[in-house]
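Hi everyone, sorry if this is the wrong subforum. Our group has a chain we'd like a structural model of before ordering constructs, and none of us has done structure prediction before. Sequence below.
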Amino acid sequence: MNYIKFDPDESYYYQHGMSKRVAETGASWPHYHGLYEIYYLEKGNCTYFIDGKIYSLIPGDIVIIPDGIIHHTKYDDISHSRILINCASRYIPTSVRTGISSGNYLYRNPDITAEAAGLFEKIEKEYMLRDRFCDEIITCYTHSLFYLLLRNSDTCLDIEVKNKVIEQAISYIRENFSSPLTLSSVAGMLSVSPEHFSRMFKKETGLGFSKYLNSLRLQHAEKLLKASHGQSITKIAEDCGFEDSNYFSKKFKEIYGTSPKKVQKQGKRDAK
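Answer:
Right subforum, don't worry. Here is the predicted structure as tokens:
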């Protein structure tokens, strides 16, 4: 099952190697975390879609994604190796949190690649060791990684947009997802045929238009459900762009594993 929100059970999760789950389909489902994400591409290629922006990664690139930001990856070549870390905010130095939340997600700086790779190696060693000192040592190394990135952010290389048409489309979809968007209407806005736009969107993102649109709508729906007090599920579905509340409830349960009503009730309990 695909989940739009995914958090590991640990407050610090480390994985090194190839993403076998993504390699099977070529792309991950658009998702977000309640944790920060640190991604280091060690080998291969990867297209990263983050908050409406498209990045073509090369080995040595590091991506930092704050909590709550929708993102997904696409691999043209399944032979890749990456390091993925999901961690709670306490592992992020307070002094750099503003800097990494400014919309600059990709850090490409050959001058610090070797030093960064060394820090990832040290983090992995401590993560595998798992003794009573590991958490504090991992915190120190993770802090060092962030200080290294932010201290040298001014010398990062500029990243060229891979596909301006698709980035424009994604930006438009993000701004208008609550409206009755269709593949044809977005294609018309871009002055291309629906067939061409559909092929281009799938090729660049690894996802169909409807799947991407629904992921944005469902994330917004989860936020409204948690914050709502007595608002009907039908009204929330409409506010998120779903014309059929039954279809909305079906898709929500399919992706979140629970019903909109239960999320709304949990939100009310948490607010007390």
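For your construct planning: The beta strands are 12-17, 36-43, 46-50, 53-57, 62-65, 71-74, 81-87, 106-107. The CA atoms of residues 95 and 147 lie 9 Å apart.
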